[in-house]
Amino acid sequence: MTTPDDIERMGAAAVERLRAAPDLDALTAVLAEVTGKGSDLGAVKRGMGQLDAEARKQLGQTLNRVNGDVGRAAAERRAELEAAARRVRLEAERLDLTEVRPTTGAGHLHLVTQTMEELEDVFTGLGFAVAEGPEVEDDWHNFTGLNIPAYHPARDMQDTFFVDRGEPGDVVLRTHTSPVQLRVMEQQGPPIYIVVPGRVHRNEARDATHLATFHQLEALVVDEGITFGHLAGTIEAFTAAYFGEGFTSRLRPSYFPFTEPSAEFDIRRPDGTWLELGGCGMVHPNVLRNGGIDPERYTGFAFGFGIDRLALARHGVPDLREILSVDVRFLEQF
Ligand code: FA5
């Protein structure tokens, strides 16, 4: 006849087997074996009906407690195995976000971005700091403060996208990087030695030499005793540093409202052909004054050129619209 001690032993054996289950499937199988119909404990339960009331009560209490222990052991083992499985899964799904992927097949920066970074390197090497300004600009910084008053014909030199904010015509997409000249003058006094790479927008039809959204690099120097010679020397030093041996620069008289005198500058390639790069000049006294700088004490020079034209010319690509290409066969070449 089954005794309470027998039930305790059966329970202890069941608990031991449950604790040894190596995984969740095994645990489910063991639990069915030790508590199911064919199990020792199951048989005890089924035989209870034949016992007298006193024995039934005594065995019943032990059986309930032991069944409780077995159930708890199964639940504990399940929790352990689930936690272990979760750890394995997390480890397998782990992503190292700091991992550096090999460059082959992983894509790369766009030619224009690469060119901007190279230009920044060259100019920081020459002692310039890099500054930035907003692409959505106000009339003052883009035009009026740069000595381009309303109705001045020079506004037509740069067809403008207007933003529907504030008074009509007050807010524009900047048409050049020159507004950052004023912003830097406002923020810091002289000496100023900065370059500003950035995106600009003009309401222009696209063709082989024009885009509506393109990139410029602006340079601004303001200090005591700055002369046109410093401007020409800086452009020459930049040409040699960026393009290398055999490239030189030239200046041609020109007109910009924010510089006086003004010039255009071109780069001469080793094969003798010229690449028109941008505009430059001595910062107009009105612009210095608008930036809060005393033009009696300080002078400065500025230049600004198109990065997209420069980038493509360097690689011999004749049509600026290729800049917008999403064809990997084109992009892969750079
Ligand atoms: C300017 O934008 C003046 N802010 C440059 C400047 C700065 C002069 C400081 C004096 C002192 P301009 O409009 O010429 O100037 O444009 C300068 C360069 O931007 C051009 O030489 C050309 O390389 C590039 N560029 C102009 N328009 C386009 C366009 N639609 N698409 C691509 N590049 C352009």
Question: Secondary-structure blueprint of this entry?
Answer:
Layout: H1 4-20, H2 24-35, H3 40-47, H4 53-93, H5 111-125, E1 129-130, E2 136-138, H6 139-142, E3 162-163, E4 171-173, H7 179-187, E5 192-201, E6 213-223, H8 228-243, E7 248-256, E8 259-268, E9 274-283, H9 285-290, E10 299-306, H10 307-314, H11 328-331
Parallel strand pairs: 1-5
Antiparallel strand pairs: 2-4, 3-4, 5-6, 6-10, 7-8, 8-9, 9-10
This protein binds adenosine-5'-[phenylalaninyl-phosphate].
CATH level-1 class of the largest domain: Alpha Beta
Within the CATH hierarchy, at the fold level, what is the topology of the largest domain? BirA Bifunctional Protein, domain 2
- How much β-strand is present in the residues? 15-25%
The structural class is alpha+beta
Ligands present: adenosine-5'-[phenylalaninyl-phosphate]
Could you list some keywords that capture this structure?
334 residues, alpha+beta, BirA Bifunctional Protein, domain 2, seven-stranded mixed β-sheet, 10 strands, rod-shaped
In short:
The chain has 334 residues and is of the alpha+beta class. It contains eleven helices and ten strands.
